[in-house]
Specification:
Chain lengths: 372, 336
């Protein structure tokens, strides 16, 4: 049995679930901070095997979703700049901006290219020297090292037609903002796996120490998540708040120093605008002055109109964990993956999308409301 | 052929087009109906019920691990007939060629079609060729249509799934999708995943020999097993529950999907079928399927339920439940 099949061995799940059900914690709410966890939890049917007193919540962990409409509008304006080819990860395309989405302008002929990695964007720049290739960089600490490496590589290769529009964000200030708002009571936190592989498990120690909230860094297999939930419940049961790293096969206490140093050499930490949260100080990554020749915002003059969101869209509340997607009045009716009003319904890591695609009672509720 | 590349004149209707047909297409697809060189093939069907289907093939790249657009175009249309319970009796082939395509590439594709048609025992009896300006199509598009005959007493329909029926799947899933995706993205795996593209009409006839009362049959091509099951659930007004642990997925396909952020349930298959059958016949059907080369990996993957009409759900590996939705939009890579 290899590593992957071991973490998918369903016979190991039953005793874990049994233990979780027996934990005497009283009613608790656990939140995951990572969109990858949201999807894995729904896909594995984990919520459906939890006892009633354990409530699972999704936090602001989907990088596409927390991108503000103002930033998305800026990317759309960049894409429409003559001679520019905008490149980005596929998930961003269908997200509705204030007036249109990248997918809509692409269908009408504006060049927008989906890339799997920043290297794809660099290759485009090499192959089309007459075009300006702009990479719209979204994501958290996990994607930042590849973005930094691309900028360094662009300088090494002497690429004068590559630039980057960075709206990348940092998870720690996001988590701090959420907890400080105090809108939602969280008894335990499932710490992000991939982000922590870069910034290190220790980066989350402030959760137990400053907020008294236990945290378990978790992997993405169903058994990882069950084990992490059990560890969280064990701490809650014992009245302890500590940091546990369940994802030790990937995450080190100190993280990946080399990757993170590369990020810090290329990007400054600046204030950033989050959907649902507004401006969060020291929560975003912008190219440092010595790299600003690659900053698309400096290279191109664009006009951006004041942004707005669909009045019925409540993605902001969903991202703060105060509204469960199925309780949104437009969930599955006016807002569907085919006709999204906000990003959470259309990003593959969005909480509304996860409910819509995977959650049986949420879907039955839609069917019933359509019938009545 | 004296030319190395297809020119616009090859689609002109004049002498160069006749050269192309005589020298490239006719030798490959040789059969009495085609040799008549009429504007149509004429059949004398010995049955009251005919099945008729058409499909256009625009796959990019033209060649991928284990196959190409040519054999795909033959298998795909044969399978669309087969899953209606029909015995295919003839195919048409329409070629839309971008000027500048290398004749050698066209020859390889036509040879692959011939081999696929010969192996299936289904002749290509009529055809058409058009050549369009550069940029008006992407190298080569192929349309194939097919006619098949259906025996009396066979009534396979997407609306026929009934409470208590069981869901059978004839083979491993996701292979075609991963093969094409890896070729398109230039990704190489140590164990290459090849397309499952194959003709299924013999498997279907073997199944009908065992049980003529097959309720529903579909080949889960674009949109994959998940989308096909959703179509059936909605058409029949039933719920369907599948068991995650029973899904036949090779470690290679699972590994590629993990790497690329894909779900094998949504990947295209070109050599697998889903059958929804009365529970009493399922054991006999599975045994018969496994005796055929096309169905060695056949298994039962789920059941039809009367509750939750229109919804497909999955019993997950850990005993939880989740919805299996229809594919929405394109398949996109994950971002973190």
């Amino acid at each position: 049995m290899n590593l992957l099949t071991a973490f998918r061995d369903s016979t190991r799940a039953a005793p874990l679930i049994e233990r979780i059900r027996r934990r005497d914690t009283g009613p608790v709410s656990l939140m995951e901070f990572c969109g990858g966890h949201t999807v894995a939890i729904f896909r594995g049917g984990i919520r459906t095997v939890m006892p009633e007193h354990v409530r699972m919540l999704s936090g602001p962990g989907c990088p596409v979703c927390v991108t503000s409409n103002a930033d998305l509008d800026r990317a759309i304006a960049l894409a429409k700049t003559p001679n520019v080819v905008l490149t980005t990860y596929g998930d961003m395309l269908k997200v509705p901006g204030s007036r249109e989405s990248l997918a809509q302008i692409k269908a009408l002929g504006t060049p927008v290219e989906i890339v799997y990695s920043t290297i794809d964007a660099l290759r485009l720049a090499q192959n089309y020297p007459d075009k300006q290739i702009v990479f719209f960089a979204i994501g958290f600490e996990t994607t930042a090292p590849a973005a930094a490496a691309a900028v360094i590589q662009a300088r090494n290769w002497g690429l004068r037609n590559f630039s980057m529009c960075s709206v990348m964000k940092l998870t720690i200030p996001g988590a701090q903002a959420l907890l400080r708002m105090g809108e939602v009571k969280v008894n335990g936190i499932l710490g992000p796996g991939h982000v922590s592989s870069i910034i290190g498990a220790e980066a989350w120690r402030f959760l137990p120490e400053e907020h008294g909230v236990p945290v378990v860094i978790s992997g993405f297999e169903t058994l990882d998540i069950l084990a992490a939930i059990d560890a969280l419940l064990a701490m809650i049961e014992g009245g302890k708040a500590d940091l546990i790293n369940e994802y030790r096969r990937i995450v080190k206490p100190e993280g990946n120093r080399k990757a993170w140093n590369t990020v810090r050499n290329v990007f400054d930490v600046v204030s950033s605008s989050w959907r649902g949260f507004g401006e969060i100080p020291a929560s975003g990554l912008r190219l440092r002055r010595e790299w600003e020749e690659f900053d698309a915002d400096k290279r191109f003059e664009i006009t951006v109109y004041p942004s707005d969101e669909h009045p019925a869209c409540r993605c902001g509340e969903v991202l703060r964990g105060v509204l469960e997607a199925p309780d949104c009045t437009v969930f599955g009716t006016a807002c569907t993956p085919e006709h999204p009003l906000g990003p959470c319904m259309v990003s593959s890591e969005g909480s509304c999308a996860a409910y819509y695609h995977f959650h049986q009672s949420a879907r039955l509720r839609i069917n019933n409301s359509k019938r009545s | 052929m004296r030319h190395t590349h297809i020119l616009l004149a090859h689609g002109s209707g004049g002498s160069m087009m006749h050269d192309l047909i005589r020298e490239l297409f006719l030798p490959a697809f040789d059969n009495p109906l085609l040799q008549q060189s009429n504007d149509q093939a004429v059949f004398d069907p010995q049955t009251k019920r005919l099945a008729f289907t058409t499909d256009s093939y625009v796959v990019q790249p033209l060649f991928f691990p284990g196959g190409c657009i040519g054999d795909l175009a033959v298998h795909g249309t044969i399978n669309d007939l087969a899953v209606g319970g029909a015995v295919p009796i003839g195919l048409s082939a329409g070629f839309i060629i971008e000027e500048g395509l290398e004749v050698e590439i066209l020859q390889r594709i036509v040879d692959a079609m011939k081999l696929a048609a010969d192996n299936a025992g289904v002749p290509i009896v009529t055809g058409d060729t058009k050549v369009v300006e550069r940029g008006a199509c992407d190298k080569l598009f192929i349309n194939t249509s097919g006619i098949g005959v259906i025996a009396d007493g066979v009534n396979i329909d997407g609306a026929n799934a009934r409470d208590g029926d069981v869901v059978l799947l004839s083979g491993c899933i996701g292979e075609h999708g991963v093969a094409v995706m890896s070729e398109r993205k230039g990704i190489r795996f140590s164990t290459p995943v090849v397309t499952d593209s194959k003709a299924l009409h013999r498997l279907v006839q073997r199944m009908l020999d065992v049980c003529s009362d097959i309720h529903v049959m579909r080949d889960p091509t674009r949109g994959g097993v998940a989308s096909t099951l959703n179509e059936i659930a909605s058409q029949s007004g039933v719920g369907i529950e599948i068991d995650e642990a029973s899904l036949p997925i090779t470690p290679e396909v699972q590994g590629a999907c993990d790497l690329l952020g894909l779900d094998p349930l949504y990947l295209a298959n070109e050599g697998a079928l889903i059958a929804i059958v009365p529970a009493v016949h399922s054991d006999a059907l599975l045994a018969a399927m496994r005796e055929t080369p096309e169905g060695v990996n056949a298994r039962m993957i789920g059941t039809v339920l009367s509750d939750t009409p229109g919804l497909v759900r999955m019993r997950t590996g850990i005993g939880g439940t989740r919805i299996v939705n229809m594919l929405s939009g394109e398949i996109l890579p994950r971002i973190c």
